[in-house]
Predict the structure.
Amino acid sequence: MDTPRFDSFEAFYPYYLAEHSNRTCRRLHFAGTTLVIVIAVIAALTANAGWLWALPVAGYGFAWVGHFVFEKNRPATFKHPFYSLLGDFAMYRDIWLGRISL
C-alpha cells in the first residue's frame, strides 16, 4: 500500500491524526512526548549531554508500541519523519488544549 505524499504539514496532519485513532496509542504517544520534554529539560538544566541518548528511546519506544500493538499500523515516521515529529508535538498540544481526547 502506497503512502500518500504531502506538500505541507497542514495537509499531513489530518492523515497523522487518522493514524492515531486508537486511544491507547494516543496515550502512549502522550507519555513518550512528556518523557522527551522532561529528559530534554534535565539535559539542559544539568548541562549533561548523556541524557540525550534517552530522547529517541522514550519518544519512539512508546510510540512504536502504540502503533504495532494497539493501532496495528506502521508508524508514519518511516515515510514522513519530519512531518511525523511535528505531528507528535501538534497532537500533544491538541491533547493539552482539549481538542483531542485521551
